[in-house]
Amino acid sequence: MSAATKFPESPGRSELHASLHDVWKRFGERSVLEGVSLELKAGEITVVIGGSGCGKSTLLRILLGLESYERGSVRLFGREMNTLTRAEQSELMMQVGALFQFGALFDSMTVAENVGFALRYVQRRPDAEIAQRVRENLSLVGLRDVERLYPAQLSGGMRKRVALARAIAHKPALLCVDEPTTGLDPIMSDTINELILQMRERLGVTVLCITHDLGAAFKIADRIAMVHGGQIAAFGTPDEIRASSEPAVRQFVTAAAYGPLS
Length: 262
What we know:
By secondary structure, this protein is α/β, with parallel strands linked by helices. It folds into two domains: 16-95 and 174-256, 3-Layer(aba) Sandwich (Rossmann fold); 108-171, no CATH class. Helices cover 35% and strands 24% of the residues. The strands form two sheets. A six-stranded mixed β-sheet has the order 6-7-8-3-9-10, with helices on both faces. A four-stranded antiparallel β-sheet has the order 2-1-4-5, covered by helices on one side.
């Protein structure tokens, strides 16, 4: 990448780390997103909620560059993604960390190799630095003496924490988290929620979290967006979402069997 295209430093807390504007996405004949707009302010935790199949994870995958879209604008750290070359997109994505729903750890790699993957194969860091960063990030998520273990030797909660350590190992400015508490017991779910809050406080990272877990959403979010009918049906603070009179939001928040989501 030339000096002329060097990306600026990450924006301050009052600025935007990412945004989607009027984004449309279809899968065949099925329309998933119909003009979705969402802004992620630096230093905030934004949580996206909604029913199964509403397009929450699709929104995340579009932001990560893993899914195409028909029209709209996706900006990351002030750069329009569609105007960048693939190499420029890859460079920009190094400021992003991702925790996928089931961890997505490499089964054939040890914990240390998983956590240090981007440091070794993308950033080409020296072995000593990688080892130190691996230990530091495992400690941040409350794990010690597990570097030599393989994913199959870990509990579900431990695998999720290892995946979180990997997501933050390269010191991203934006952390994207997809269903972080799925498959976990209530105590471990709360542990993961606490870790996400700690990542924001200790590292200053901006967080986008996709979840159907209302307890998690209300605990960690600065702002909540609800996706319904291919659009953002509601957007506001946890208290504003709780008090919303929009029928789909009321049904989701109260877990009612009947309503527009049924």
